[in-house]
Amino acid sequence: MSLPKSEISEILSAMGDILTRLIDRVEKNIEFQPFERRELLNTLYKQMCGVQIDEILAHVDNKHKLQIKRGDTDKNNTYVGQPGEITMDTDAKTIRIHDGETTGGVAMARAIDTIGDWVVESQLPTAENNYTWYRKYKSGWVEMGGLLSGRSVTFPIEFAQIPTLVFGNYSSGTSNTPQNVYNEITTAGFTGWRTRTNAGWDSGAEDWNGCWSAYGIAA
User: Fold this and answer.
1) pLDDT tens string 40-60
2) Which of 22, 59, 74, 181 has the fewest CB atoms within 10 Å, i.e. the most exposed one?
């Protein structure tokens, strides 16, 4: 299909006018203002397409959203996309990248909260809290510890089940005699007992020296 000579002449005339204005601006080193560039494009589109760019934009519905090719897992698993093509698995809620060869493409990783864990709450050891520290993770895992002070220790965070409790090396605060610490432990804390090498069982009337740590899932 060819254009009538009259339309071709009008288009060439419009293009010639635009080129003349462009050359004039370049020679005078004058930049086009945004409204001038818009006017030139409107003139050219009007001659070539019968409608101005402004008229086209006025009919564009900004509510339209970009949607990529999509389908369920079965459809994605059998699909061989073009190199660089993206598809969505509507079942797994994942994006797949295609290379033109691999059937099903390559699924991209989901958000990090499904593949990792990180600290959401913590406390640093200070003199005010008897050097008790803890780290609570998003998964619920808790690590904590501190210095021994007296026979009973209350955990800063309660556990869902009795945790794993670990003691350091200890000695009596008065006799410096090595001690083995035994404990009655609950999800909320523990009470210590110890054996002296020279005095058998001792309920722990003396001050303790040493440290403790506990690990498990928070309540």
Assistant:
1) 777 777 766 777 767 766 665
2) 59
- At 9-26, the pLDDT tens digits run 666 666 667 667 776 766
Rounded CA separation 206/151 (Å)? 9
Q: Residue 90 region, left (φ>0) first, then alpha (ψ -120 to 50), else beta?
A: alpha
Report d(CA 199, CA 178) in Å as an integer.
Answer: 11
Amino acid at 127: A
Q: Which pLDDT band, with edges at 50, 70 and 90, does 190 fall under?
A: confident
Task: Classify burial at 210, counting beta carbons within 10 Å of its beta carbon; exposed 0-12, middle 13-18, buried 19 or more.
Answer: middle
112 vs 138: CA distance, rounded Å = 12
Task: Say how far apart CA 145 and CA 136 lie, in whole Å.
Answer: 12
Residue type, 157: I
Pick from 88, 109, 67: nearest CA to 79: 88
**Cβ pair 100, 116 in contact under 8 A:** no
User: How far apart are alpha carbons 50 and 3 in whole angstroms?
Assistant: 13
Token digits of residue 192: 């210590």
Q: Which two tokens stand for residue 74?
A: 């079965």
Rounded to an integer, what distance in angstroms lies between the CA atom of residue 88 and that of residue 107?
Answer: 9
Q: Which residues fall within 8 angstroms of residue 162, CB to CB, at 6 or more apart?
A: 185, 186, 187, 216
Question: With the C-alpha atoms ordered 145, 195, 178, 207, is the resulting torsion angle positive or negative?
Answer: positive
Residue located via tokens 């660089």: 84
Predicted TM-score of the model (pTM)? 0.45
